[in-house]
Design brief:
The protein is of the alpha+beta class. It is built from five helices and ten strands, in the order E-E-E-E-E-H-E-H-E-E-E-H-H-E-H. Residues 1-65 are annotated as: Disordered.
């Protein structure tokens, strides 16, 4: 593939113009518990339901200590602007994805345990937002779908790759990746600033974006979405930008 290790997780930085995302440590330096989120429902397509139809879905965990939200969609961050990491340009925009054979590629380079577990939870056919990150104006530009479930990320064994991990063994690989395929561009660019405005409003009135991981765990490059979060964000493409 022409762009090795292009989907970055190690050393991820907060999106520009996002004051709430100022965190001093990288997600690689503060790995999360290896707690796998389960995904149980298939994608529902281009629903346009808003927060007034919001209905929270939870499932109890095996220990009964707390309930888990059901995630069935995803948000994948990638950098659309050139940036060298150990001499390799990690740029990969949605246009780069569209230029791939069959508009399909592997989503490699994830080096955070929680993000890795989210990759491993992805199911065939589920949809995800393609999010341009670490750029002048971050936000959602398109939709992709999972076309191959998690398998070992080959870049962890490549010493020339910026995401090489000398502690990973081929008999027991630490890191995984999935294959994604371009579905379509969103009808308009949905900027982070607009999504954040809804998130803040929903925190006050109980709307579906009140716990959106884009704002509660800003540094993760792989993020799950509930059906309600996905539906609401997708509905924004039908609205005129403010």
């Amino acid at each position: 593939m022409p762009w090795p290790s292009r989907k970055r997780d190690k050393g991820v930085v907060a999106d520009k113009k996002e004051p709430d995302a100022k965190i001093t440590k990288t997600e690689e330096e503060t790995p999360d518990k290896e707690e796998e989120e389960k995904s149980t429902k298939p994608p529902a397509g281009s629903s346009k339901s808003g927060w007034k139809n919001w209905k929270k879905t939870k499932e109890s965990d095996s220990g009964g200590e707390e309930s888990k939200i059901t995630y069935c969609h995803w948000l994948l961050k990638s950098e659309p602007e050139s940036r060298l990491e150990k001499g390799v340009d990690v740029k990969f925009s949605i246009d780069d994805l569209k230029a791939q054979p069959n508009q399909t590629t592997f989503w490699d380079g994830v080096r955070n345990y929680q993000a890795r577990n989210f990759l491993r939870a992805m199911k065939l056919g589920q949809q995800a937002f393609f999010y341009h990150s670490n750029c002048k104006e971050p936000g959602i530009v398109g939709i992709v779908k999972i076309v191959k479930e998690a398998y070992p990320d080959h870049t962890q064994f490549d010493q020339k790759d910026p995401h090489y991990d000398s502690s990973s063994r081929k008999e027991n690989p630490k890191w995984s990746m999935v294959d994604v395929q371009f579905v379509r561009m969103t009808k308009r660019f949905i900027p982070l600033s607009e999504i954040k405005a809804h998130h803040l409003a929903h925190k006050a009135d109980g709307g579906p974006l009140k716990n959106m991981m884009l704002f509660t765990r800003q540094r993760l490059s792989i993020q799950p979405l509930t059906q309600e979060e996905f539906d609401f964000v997708l509905s924004l493409e039908e609205e005129k930008p403010h």
